[in-house]
Amino acid sequence: MTDRKAELAANLARVEERISAACAGAGRKREEVTLIVVTKTYPASDVRLLAELGVRHVAENRDQEAAPKAAECADLPLIWHFVGQLQTNKVRSVSSYADVVQSVDRKRLVDALSRAAVGAARELGVLIQVALDVDSSDRGERGGVGPDGVERLAESVVEAQGLRLDGLMTVAPLAGPYEGRPRAAFDRLMEISSRLRVAHPAANMVSAGMSSDLEEAVAAGATHVRVGTAVLGVRPGLR
């Protein structure tokens, strides 16, 4: 085993222990939570090693980096998630490789994704990104639509060709009433998810929690956690 593969295996084992412990503490089954490894800034060679180690879900946040990496790893049995803020001029490229777009926060983006998905003869899973630093239907500081805008945007996704409404995503806010309170933020997301699932029962995916707060997300009920640093190490630009 290469040094890098051994390093990734050890990091994955530690993250697995954290998720398992969080599930046990919350009275949940381990299989209720899916690990998505965020591979941004890391090379395709790391993605290959992760796949060899059993990882099936990977995420990227910049199309310029994600598109060539996904192409290089097209032979691997991976599910690709796009988690970054997405401009409409990147939609056609993203829709060619992403299986799930987790950062949908406006009608214009829904329309663009729908056109691209139909053009590519693909079905894209969509998560509505919820901004918890605003109360209204405004966009948040880190993207996302405010809680008041979720249901209307969900209807747009459901009505759009080529798209499948899978659920909700959030990033713990850096401002507003939930600043520094990730568990409260994730509890709020679960409330919004429960309301959404009344009208759309299949939209049961809840993506929340990262390396620093995955335990709080699991305790709140998240179905997917997005972990980068704890698996891959501190990103090169942050060292």
Write the layout of secondary structure elements.
Blueprint: H1 3-25, E1 34-38, H2 44-52, E2 57-60, H3 63-72, E3 79-82, H4 91-97, E4 100-104, H5 107-119, E5 124-129, H6 150-159, E6 163-169, H7 182-199, E7 205-207, H8 214-220, E8 224-227, H9 229-232
Parallel strand pairs: 1-2, 1-8, 2-3, 3-4, 4-5, 5-6, 6-7
Order of helices and strands: HEHEHEHEHEHEHEHEH
**Helix content class:** 40-55%
Oligomer: single chain
Overall average pLDDT: 94
Structural class label? alpha/beta
Unreliable spans are none
Query: What strand line-up does the widest sheet have?
Result: 7-6-5-4-3-2-1-8
- Number of alpha- plus pi-helical segments: 9
Strand content: 15-25%
Radius of gyration: 17 Å
End-to-end C-alpha gap: 26 Å
Query: How many distinct beta strands?
Result: 8
Largest sheet, in brief, is: 8 strands, parallel
For this entry, give a set of tags.
single chain; 239 residues; alpha/beta; 8-stranded parallel sheet; globular
Question: Concise description?
Answer:
Keywords: Pyridoxal phosphate. This protein has nine helices and eight strands. The chain is of the alpha/beta class and about 240 residues long.
